Amino acid sequence: MDADQERRARNEAIFREVNERIEELSRRGGIDEEDSLLPGFVCECSDETCTELIQVSYQQYEAVRENPRRFLVLPGHQDPDVERVVEESANVFVVEKDIEAAEVALEHDPRSDDAPEG
């Protein structure tokens, strides 16, 4: 993976970490895990200047987080150089990192025991 691809993969990992904190605070606030929409998630695309928000249900979010190679992005924000779209809906795509980019995603997965303390 070249330096630019690694930088983009790290950006996505940072956005995922932000969303993990939002999800944690939502759980502490008593969300209904069955059907609540989680507000204010950031697009987990590789563009470090992206500030667009996405809205997903708690169940959708948890399904994506089960696989550390997967990220939530807005339609059109996918990066075909390092990922492929594996699920599509009107307001959000789920992308999965290719093998090289997955190394960075796995290394910085906040749900992994091996993730660095942030």
> Mean of residue pLDDT?
80
Tally of strands: 5
Q: What spatial order of strands do you see in the largest sheet?
A: 3-5-4
Radius of gyration: 13 Å
Distance between the termini: 24 Å
- How many discrete structural domains? 1
One letter per element, helices H and strands E, the order comes to: HEEHEEEH
Summed up, the helix count is 3
Content-based structural category: alpha+beta
Largest sheet, if any? 3 strands, antiparallel
Query: Spans of 5+ residues with little confidence (pLDDT < 50)?
Result: none
Please state roughly what percent of the residues sit in beta strands, choosing from under 5%, 5-15%, 15-25%, 25-35%, 35-45% or over 45%.
15-25%
Q: Which outline best applies? A: globular
Could you please describe the fold and organization of this structure?
Helix 1 packs across helix 3. By secondary structure, the chain is of the alpha+beta class. The protein has helices at 3-28, 58-65, 99-107, and strands spanning 37-42, 53-57, 70-73, 83-88, 93-97. The mean pLDDT is 80. The relative contact order is 0.20. The protein has a three-stranded antiparallel beta sheet with strand order 3-5-4. It has a two-stranded antiparallel sheet with strand order 1-2. The protein has three helices and five strands. The two termini are 24 Å apart. It has one domain.
